[in-house]
């Protein structure tokens, strides 16, 4: 019986090639979108699934300014790990991570640069389940100057030799040697912690660090005892902060815990999250899954629409089969077998589409997603089960509807097949296009917001600026490098800073001692710069002067931005910002404010301008050189910079990046989101148009004699095209009326996450309406014009 069902199903598919092709292509595209997103979701959810312990990361909420602006950060203070464990028995153990990138290591005549290295407590490998191939997992990092390196690092340094017990050296401010005590398996790609080597934290710990409660420069992780109530533990943290932090500074901090397995996808609102590899918001992942499901549902709707529209052809088949004894459930099974067959044929094409699209998806998402996950029985079951489910859901309504025909009425011709079913088809078409138009509008606004952030004036010049990275060795030669570049027509200016604009900058505590008021202690953002930094970036001053360039005064001169200026004068709102010049301000030994800078966006436009001060303090060290080059001779300028770097730092390869490219990375997650949503919305439109094409084809086919009569009576081609197209265009307009307000409401909610945002313009909605009507008109008119220009003699010959 099943064999017969499949044979009949195949014959019907082959007999109706156009409609079968439309259904198969539509379902294949919808399935491919779902499979790709499923692979992406599977990859994201696999992050850190090999970690087994009850691990939590400590995070801070820092309050900045009197308005109570808060920001969450992943960093914590050095003493917090041991003191929190000491204070609270719920904390079983802890480990801290201090990371460093471009870490130079030497072994005899071999020199390599690690992408990322961690200094960790000896408990690190007790907490985290990274595989140790050789060495003592529990005590390998206990002693100072011990190191455990990955297989890849061992191969680079020692080749096939045994690295255990060998010495490796790091040349920086102070030459540091390490003894290799173990070899680790290469870190899995689905780990948020990515490193090439682990070094003992005891190597860099100094006694004064235990008193350093002001600096946030590492990540702290805890293992909690089983059964710990996280909320109850966090409720004790304010008293802890009050006990250990000086004065009222504890009021500017809150502590909270985040489960380690939730860090990768659940920390979108947490800044300074430097070692969260491929961080991606789970809300966005869920959004992709929902949109992909919508695309698949649109494809299923196509099948339902076309099947019910063509019910008149199947009515006689049903009548004849019922008259010779077929039961209704047998007919329903026959129709369902057809849809399941279409579903599996679509799956084959979908897998081909997935294979073709994965290289592009991997390039876009920077993942390594493959179809190898089909080796998992769970995923195989989900795909095949989903295919059958799609077939059943697509075919259940047509099967019930078609099998319900009464044989006597059908064979007598007294049944009006399809009566009252036009309303259902209209509703499904409107639903399809509502979803597709909604996605189109969302895509346009997302792209406009992204373009707005990238083109918005940040308050400084960032064109043709090349950032060259410095490390512990090369920053000592900054002046030499600066002098080598200066004076050449290829370079318009050179300066340096500790951090790069567009990134989250460090926060610190400062003191303000006005001449007419009490002392103020507050937290704010810090940017360490060279004395000519403001000049190169063309930052404006609203009061005072620039740094003098006198290195003897480099820790005594401060420039504050307008936001910090208003914060300092919150008790004297009528005082002008210029009155701040000369006031005592700073940390350690107080200096003076020499200038007030006009506000500039030193973070992404997701955030408003926060209070910030700049200090020209070389002793704090620079991490980045900014070189403004001649934009008309970019290639020559880059070659010149590389040559000078190689001459001055022959043992350190240059790392550089245009500032514009850095900002592209800052907005990378937004860009990825917009592109993926755009692709899915394009697929939704494509599948909806396929269905519209099928319905238009069928409508023209069924009205061929009517068209012939109208042409004989003098109807023009234009009139006939309007007749055939009008109903479908009305449905598209209704879809717009529904989709536009829903999309505007959703986008207004999405834009709330941006401190600087575009306005919701009705022009976009009108443009999308016109585009959707044009797309629908082009889709329909192909069949309408074909029917309208056909020879009426042929259609009326049988009358």
UniProtKB/TrEMBL annotation:
Keywords carried by this UniProt record: Cell membrane, Membrane, Transmembrane, Transmembrane helix
Membrane-spanning residues: 21-43, 287-308, 329-354, 374-402, 423-447, 676-699, 720-744, 764-785
One family name in Pfam for this protein: FtsX
Chief localization: membrane
Keyword Cytoplasm attributed: no
Domain of life from the UniProt record: Bacteria
Keyword Transmembrane: yes
Residues covered by the MacB-like periplasmic core domain: 20-237
Gene Ontology terms for molecular function: transmembrane transporter activity
Places the protein is found: Cell membrane
One term under GO cellular component: plasma membrane
Membrane topology, as annotated: Multi-pass membrane protein
All residue ranges annotated as the ABC3 transporter permease C-terminal domain in the record: 290-405, 679-792
Name of the featured protein: FtsX-like permease family protein
Organism per entry: Mucilaginibacter ginsenosidivorans
Lineage of source species: Bacteria, Pseudomonadati, Bacteroidota, Sphingobacteriia, Sphingobacteriales
């Amino acid at each position: 019986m099943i064999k017969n069902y499949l044979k009949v199903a195949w014959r019907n598919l082959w007999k109706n090639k156009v409609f079968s092709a439309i259904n198969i292509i539509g379902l294949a595209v919808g399935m491919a979108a779902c499979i790709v997103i499923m692979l992406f979701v599977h990859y994201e959810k696999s992050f850190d699934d090999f970690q087994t312990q009850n691990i939590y990361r400590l995070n801070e909420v820092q309050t900045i300014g009197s308005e109570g602006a808060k920001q969450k950060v992943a960093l914590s203070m050095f003493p917090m790990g041991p003191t929190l464990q000491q204070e609270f028995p719920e904390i079983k153990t802890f480990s801290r991570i201090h990371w460093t990138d471009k870490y130079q290591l030497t072994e005899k005549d071999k020199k390599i640069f690690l992408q990322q290295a961690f200094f960790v407590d000896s408990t690190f490998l007790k907490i985290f389940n990274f595989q140790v191939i050789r060495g003592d997992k529990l005590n390998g990092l206990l002693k100072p100057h011990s190191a455990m390196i990955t297989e890849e690092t061992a191969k680079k340094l020692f080749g096939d030799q045994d690295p255990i017990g060998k010495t490796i050296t790091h040349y920086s401010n102070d030459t540091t040697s390490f003894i290799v005590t173990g070899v680790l398996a290469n870190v899995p790609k689905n780990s948020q912690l990515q490193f090439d080597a682990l070094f003992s934290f005891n190597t860099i710990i100094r006694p004064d660090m235990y008193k350093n409660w002001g600096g946030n420069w590492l990540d702290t992780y805890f293992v909690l005892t089983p059964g710990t109530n996280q909320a109850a533990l966090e409720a004790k943290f304010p008293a802890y902060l009050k006990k250990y932090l000086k004065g009222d500074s504890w009021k500017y901090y809150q502590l909270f815990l985040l489960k380690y397995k939730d860090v990768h996808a659940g920390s979108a609102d947490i800044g300074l999250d430097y070692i969260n590899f491929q961080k991606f918001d789970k809300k966005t992942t869920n959004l992709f899954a929902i949109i992909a499901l919508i695309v698949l549902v649109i494809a299923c709707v196509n099948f339902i629409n076309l099947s019910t529209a063509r019910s008149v052809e199947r009515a006689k088949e049903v009548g004849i089969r019922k008259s010779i004894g077929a039961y209704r459930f047998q007919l329903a099974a026959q129709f369902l077998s057809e849809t399941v067959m279409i579903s599996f044929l679509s799956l084959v094409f979908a897998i081909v589409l997935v294979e073709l699209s994965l290289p592009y998806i991997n390039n876009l998402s920077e993942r390594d997603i493959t179809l190898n996950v089909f080796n998992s029985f769970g995923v195989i079951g989900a795909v095949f089960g989903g295919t059958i489910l799609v077939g059943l859901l697509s075919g259940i309504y047509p099967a019930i509807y078609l099998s319900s025909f009464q044989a006597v009425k059908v064979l007598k011709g007294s049944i009006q097949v399809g009566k009252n079913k036009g309303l259902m088809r209209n509703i499904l078409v409107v639903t399809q296009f509502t979803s597709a138009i909604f996605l189109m509008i969302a895509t346009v606004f997302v792209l406009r917001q992204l373009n707005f952030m990238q083109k918005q004036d940040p308050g400084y010049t960032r064109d043709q600026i090349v950032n060259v990275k410095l490390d512990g060795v090369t920053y000592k030669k900054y002046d030499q490098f600066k002098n080598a570049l200066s004076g050449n027509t290829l370079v318009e200016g050179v300066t340096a800073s500790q951090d790069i604009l567009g990134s989250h900058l460090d926060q610190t505590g400062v003191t303000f001692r006005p001449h007419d008021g009490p002392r103020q202690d507050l937290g704010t953002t810090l940017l360490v710069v060279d004395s000519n930094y403001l000049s190169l970036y063309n930052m404006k001053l609203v009061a005072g002067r620039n740094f003098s360039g006198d290195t003897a005064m480099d820790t005594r001169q401060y420039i504050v931005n307008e936001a910090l200026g208003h914060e300092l004068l919150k008790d004297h709102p009528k005082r002008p910002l210029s009155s701040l010049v000369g006031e005592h301000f700073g940390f350690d030994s107080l200096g003076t404010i020499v200038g007030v800078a006009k506000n500039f966006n030193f973070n992404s436009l997701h955030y408003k301008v926060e209070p910030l001060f700049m200090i020209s303090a070389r002793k704090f060290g620079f991490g980045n050189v900014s070189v403004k080059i001649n934009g008309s001779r970019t290639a020559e300028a880059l070659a010149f910079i590389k040559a000078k770097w190689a001459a001055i730092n022959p043992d350190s390869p240059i790392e550089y990046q245009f500032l514009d490219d850095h900002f592209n990375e800052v907005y990378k997650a937004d860009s990825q989101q917009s592109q993926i949503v755009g692709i899915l919305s394009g697929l939704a439109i494509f599948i909806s148009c396929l269905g519209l094409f099928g319905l238009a084809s069928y409508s023209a086919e069924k009205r061929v004699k009517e068209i012939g009569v109208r042409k004989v009576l003098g109807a023009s081609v234009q009139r006939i095209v309007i007749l055939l197209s009008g109903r479908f265009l009305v449905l598209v307009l209704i879809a717009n009326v529904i989709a536009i307000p829903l999309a505007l409401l959703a986008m207004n909610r999405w834009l709330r996450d941006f401190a600087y945002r575009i306005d919701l313009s009705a022009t976009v909605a009108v443009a999308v309406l016109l585009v959707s009507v044009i797309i629908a008109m082009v889709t329909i008119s192909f069949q309408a014009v074909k029917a309208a220009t056909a020879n009426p003699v042929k259609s009326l010959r049988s009358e």
